[in-house]
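Let us work through a complete example step by step.
Step 1: write down the sequence.
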Amino acid sequence: MKKITALTAAVLFAANCFSAEAKPAKADTTPIVSVYDDDVRFSESVLPYEGGLLISNFGSATMNPAPDEKNGYIIFRKNGVNQMLVEGLHKPTAMLVKFGHLFVCDETRLIVYDLKNHNVEPQIVTFAEDDKVFNALASNGTTLYVSITNTGRIYSLDISNPARINEVQPQLWLEIPGPNGLAVGGGVMYIASIPVDYSSVADENVIYCVRDLENPVAEIFYNVPGLYDGVALSDNSKTLYFSDWLTSSVKSIDVKTKKVRVVYRENGIGPADIAQSRGILYIPDLVTSRIIEINLNR
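Step 2: predict the structure and record it as tokens.
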């Protein structure tokens, strides 16, 4: 999510889907492991990493930092202890670690950090001038995929030599309406679509999939329109999880049977760029600045 006005509209839109008498529903059958908010300040994305969790934060007073604000940061949380990893960002969202490097979407740019040598200056990858809303990352082998929501573009980059990633020219891989979350597994990419204004849901704002990564063609995987943000696959790639601001929920769908169930729902939350690892689903609630962990195995 990128604009405070759009975020507000999305939250209000989601809240209007429930009656005044509706119970503040939590998980349908899936228990919460923990909820925490220490050092979390408008977290949009999470990433399991080395037995812990990377958490990106806007770090501002609101969900819409001023253009010159650099209060964004990334923390590494492990065993209940938080460690500052990166500071001085604007609006960090998606993260990905590959080949000893941390790739970060920071609203209008893709930044790459060398995790093994902190003395090396971070690199910035150059994209088209009108690409302004960098939202999600996914990888397959030595290929990195980046979604740009405002232009509808998904790019691919060769990251086999991340130490010189700033010399790589991103290649336009696919175009769909409002690409947001990305997940790759079992040779298939899943893409969440969200309205560019984050409120005007249209028929095109669904979950897509691409079954041939070498010759990408988007097909509709889940045809119910929504305000879809993050997508994450189970460890065996048989289940896809996706977050939806419209229904204030995270749902799962069996990739073969297409059976859908609600994993977690809570009125008024802003479920952003989710992640899953070893049966634990991590939900960053951007609206209330907290992380919700769900045990999928119970």
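Step 3: interpret the result. Residues 1-27 have pLDDT under 50 and may be disordered.
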